[in-house]
Specification:
4 copies of one chain form a homotetramer.
Chain A (H helix, E strand, L loop, with lengths): L1 E4 L9 H17 L3 E4 L2 H10 L5 E2 L16 H7 L3 E4 L8 H14 L2 E6 L2 H8 L5 E4 L11 H4 L1 H14 L4 E5 L5 H9 L4 E4 L1 H4 L4 H13 L1
Parallel strand pairs in A: 1-2, 1-8, 3-4, 4-5, 5-6, 6-7, 7-8
Chain lengths: 220, 220, 220, 220
């Protein structure tokens, strides 16, 4: 599985976000590999109406419907067409009790939860909260083009080992610095089940080609 | 001017948000009074594509495009069709320097800024930052159905007086507890130029009727 | 073990904080039971110079020495005489990665870490981060006088069970609503090793008597 | 007036904080210039008991006595001997409504309020909230050794001008990058009434000599 995080890149905002999602959709149809996208909130509805691949929100607030001006309601991203949400990305970190509440809220509303963790012990801690997926992303490697699977393979293997001590079912994704098909292969060999990627695709000259490369690598 | 804040009410989420915006649009066409809406981020694009009244975001983060997962980029709400944004609503309060940055950012991106303030001296402070509009909303009255213009008229008149000491141009809106046409009349008489309203319309049995009442009251 | 959290009660500020700490010290000498105190930052030094019982900080920021105006440096509470710190109290909640960083920092600086958790799964998550002690405090019971051991004994037993799945060594404290010796007895019977208490002692007419009652109960 | 912010520098923690405060006290006695210190919370009591110069807290939370574990109660710093507090330092920024609340709280408890601002318009905004003192500190110059009075004199003069439009009484301090007596002279010439300084003194080889230099410069 590949999740493409659009972050707040201009290359993945508005019409460009829809274009990028269409290319991910094409790769998915061509290869049979699940390529999901996590666009900005304002683009979820248009993208979900345009493509058939899974769409994730980048964040959801641990709130119920009501007077919460400016916050992100789970129902709002669900009704817009999202099937899940990232939680606690290193660029949008949450209090521990809010991570717990948001995972429960996502489950209650029928949204997949993808909780990000900075290091192996944090990933173990989040695994104890029973999310659907976990993504390990050392913040110091985000956006560097140096994949964690290469720079710090022990971070990935330690994460897999510690997470499995407390949770045998959660899907583990590998993130940070992934830019090539071989990085995906390495991530899968280290025991993860997919990748979370952002600039490696969004900022690529030819995002379609890279997503295609990632998908092919996932098949090996 | 009337701005309807949809907050995160289920009655104003997804399809229901579009319906409510259509009714506001109808009132605007019938009465000639500017009725703007501030829906959730996920609904901005669909609403802006459906109606011709102004659409506001409920919040924008003081960020530039880039790696800011889960945050609200000014360009994203602009491209989705918003013409402005609420800033520092009492349910989404900001650090002072972020209010300043967001007002500047909004101007730079061509978005109107509507900064909310809790009390007269805070409103004066925000007026010093030169936003386009200011909304005075005593948080203790939000959602009560008791309008500030009735419960605490001096809050409104003090706000107008203090704001005008530092800023002769900013448009002043009155918020909190407004549910009837006469509340709008009272707000205008106290020296404001419009109202910011949420539950009074969103939670009304017949939002169209109330918006119409507000619009008629604005004409007096 | 009994830890008395002074919070920001006036009854436990300044000279009154020193008086309360002296009474805890007296109970400790009389009963041999470890009674620790967690006063406000400003009172740590005076208390640590006056009594011989352990003194804890109520919070420490995950920072290194440097330019962090207004924050709490681990070295500052250590040099003032504290032997440990509360972390992530429900009234001072932290981001998950900051809990992890603060636990590591405390260990590095020779401070005991007492991490608070709202519910059993959160306590399990924090146990995965290897703090020295964990305190389970359902926030809805804090300050009520209804002990968690009575209102929700399953919260305590679930916490003990889940925490032990990932950590066999961490000391588990029971908090929230404890006001009588029998609450302490109940907490210990449910599998915890001590209590974290605040208003039950600080707001008591005779704090000395209650601490004495707690200490006697701990012996049983 | 000179306020020395000890931040969380190890050179100004614990015993070293007391030593530094003693040297400031000595400079004050020798020159007659008011040199105040803003140490960490844990050091306020010891310093206030040792010296006769004014002691400030670096921050106070906008709370009343009660259940606020880990927060800074105004009464606690007051009882420890502080006569005032910094508010909204760029390293401890607050929401606008909390700045307003803290200024009111400080006045109510008899503490001087020193509100920091990043730029001229923010300083004008804070001046509208009627604090006792304002300190203008462009964050990009903090700790650089390049004084704002030299790098950006217009920031200081703009601040003075804008602040005076709304507040004729507030004392204006100049901060960021001040390391020499001539920087103090320049700051005063630009229309401020004193300086807020940190690393320029705390990190100096001979803090006493620098404070003495500052004091002499203030007399000119």
């Amino acid at each position: 599985m590949v999740i493409v995080n659009f972050k707040t890149y201009l290359e993945a905002t508005g019409k460009k976000a829809v274009e990028l999602a269409k290319e991910a959709d094409k790769v998915c149809r061509e290869t049979g590999i699940a390529v999901a996208v996590a666009p900005q909130f304002t683009d979820i509805a248009t993208i979900a109406n345009t493509v058939s691949i899974p769409v994730f929100a980048q964040h959801v607030d641990p709130i119920q419907p009501g007077n919460h001006t400016g916050q992100i309601l789970a129902e709002s991203v669900k009704q817009a067409g999202a099937v899940g949400t990232l939680i606690n990305h290193s660029e949008r970190q949450l209090k521990l009790s809010d991570i717990d509440s948001t995972i429960r809220l996502a489950r209650e509303k029928g949204l997949f939860s993808v909780v990000c963790g900075n290091n192996p012990s944090i990933s173990k801690a989040t695994a104890a909260l029973n999310p659907d997926l976990i993504a390990v992303e050392p913040p110091e490697l985000i956006g560097t083009g140096t994949p964690v699977s290469k720079a710090k393979p022990e971070v990935v293997t330690d994460t897999v080992r510690l997470v499995r001590e407390v949770n045998s079912e959660v899907v583990i994704l590998c993130g940070a610095g992934i830019t090539r098909g071989e990085d995906v292969v390495a991530a899968l060999k280290l025991g993860t089940q997919g990748v979370l990627v952002a600039s490696g695709i969004v900022k690529a000259k030819n995002p379609y080609a890279i997503m295609r490369e990632f998908a092919e690598a996932s098949k090996r």
